[in-house]
Design goal:
By secondary structure, the chain is of the alpha+beta class. The chain contains three helices and four strands. The protein has a four-stranded antiparallel β-sheet. A hairpin with a 2-residue loop joins strand 2 (about 35-45) and strand 3 (about 50-65). The radius of gyration is 14 Å and the shape is globular. The chain starts with a strand and ends in a 5-residue tail after the last helix.
């Protein structure tokens, strides 16, 4: 059973970019909260080469129905050519927290 809420994962190479995008998402009410975890090491293949980078991981708490708007915002705001954008369902959560999340994510669809 899904609650209708998701956590969206994305990464940034610069902490200031992560903070800027996080603030915009919350200001636009596309997210109730964005948590930033840094430093994080990522190993990935990009254009045929294995790369290692230090990044900031963002955990974006939002509603499932707002994902298309978050995807558009990331295309506009994210500095990466192909930003990570993965949504994980929130299977269960505390009722007061999920109510707060709903109240804060009120961007019209």
């Amino acid at each position: 059973m899904h609650t209708g809420h998701i956590v969206v994962l994305t990464t940034f190479d610069k902490r200031e970019d992560a903070e800027r995008v996080a603030r915009i998402l919350v200001e636009r009410r596309l997210a109730a909260c964005v948590q930033m975890i840094a430093p994080m090491t990522s190993v990935y293949r990009w254009k045929g080469t294995v790369e290692t980078a230090t990044e900031t991981l963002c955990l974006i708490k939002t509603r499932r129905d707002l994902f298309p708007q978050i995807e558009r915002a990331m295309a506009e705001l994210h500095p990466y050519e192909v930003p990570e954008l993965v949504a994980l369902p929130i299977e269960m959560g505390g009722a007061p927290y999920l109510k707060w999340l709903d109240e804060e994510c009120v961007c019209p669809t």
